[in-house]
Amino acid sequence: MIRTRFAPSPTGDLHIGGLRTALYSYALAKHSKGKFVLRIEDTDKKREVPEGKEKIQKILKTFGLEWDEYFVQSELAKDGRYKKAAEELVNKGQAFYCDCQPKNAKEEGFSTDLRDPCRDKSLTSGAVKLKVPENQKVSFKDFVLDKVVEWDTTTVPDTTLLKSDGLPTYHLAVVVDDHEMDISHVLRGHDWMPSTPIHLLVYKFLGYTIPEIGHLTDILDPEGGKLSKRKGSASCEGLLKDGYLPEAILNFVMLLGWAPKDDRELFTLEEFVETFDPKGFQKSNPIFNREKLDWFNGHYLRQKSDGEITKLLLEFAPKADEKLLEQITPLIKERINKLSDFDSMAGFFFEEKKADQKLFGPNCRQHLTSAMAKLESLSDWGKDKIDSALIGLIKAKGFKTGDFFMDLRIAIAGSKFTPPITDSIAILGKSETLKRLKEALK
Q1: Where is this motif: 'KMSKS' region (predicted)?
Q2: Count of structural domains within the chain
Q3: Is 118 part of any known ligand binding site?
Q4: Cut 0.70: pTM above it
């Protein structure tokens, strides 16, 4: 049985790269009726954020990535499994105790010098470090990159496995946990590649079966640099708050490093799982293309009913009356790509937006004065009556239709880009429309 895992740390918002790792791990397991494990790696208490574990669970559920088994690393540590593994390595001569003060107050990660001065001492306490053998080859077949990757141990540093406080570093915990949980396939980001020879040695020294390991290519920003966690575009929560739908984000992420056998782009999660084939992993770095994400989101928005969109828009238009919003939704549905576009497209319905006088055309005063007089004379305030009255006015005065309606649009909405203006006028009502026209003429 294929068993995969997603093992995030509760240190902040989930990065788009993390979502991709979780999604591919989920699909790899579920495609073959296997198990998907969520393991929270929370041993770095200094960096853990409040409710970090709960936030990870919530965001994965938002995207439909339900796990079969759940573990928290700090709970697992209570049975002494990591200390036991570290002591086993020391007893075998494959690890050693070190009492050196960690540089930069950190024991996590690599030493500055490849060989630690304590490796040939006979200490009986302190941090436990891996004793990397000299002049050996360490290799594995990467099932994502589809190639053998090899290191010479002369380039692999003696690395801390167990800190002096008894807590494991990632390099020990990830190996022990994957073994104890029978993880068969490990998917992770390419930035973990330098750690792989360390993990391979720990697997070997502990006598564990090495799982299939694959490193996903880096997601690049549009400028060609690695997509940063510090950029808002890289945060899943940031994208959701910006009005992107979970199904659109997920579909977009599906194709950031994987491709189907045909040119198909649209997948539900269920369809993706059914279609998923590891042979589809791409070897080149994908680009985070915001325009493509907008396209996906626009597609999924337009698949929803007006009522569904209205409910979603309430979060982005807290001042809006739901009944009024129900009238506006059909007008903007085809014109927005994400829910947060609502304010720029239709915020004028709820708050008057002062027109920039520079936007008006040279005949704006004549256009607006004539429109105000014509609209004021209407006793029946409906879209068809408004259309008929204004078209008749344009013909009678010899106005250019485009210029007339653009000036009207700017006066009413404060922008050149709005829903159909006569529909908007009908919804705003006679009193508010005339008030805005009068204000624009000042």
Answers
A1: 226-230
A2: 4
A3: yes
A4: yes
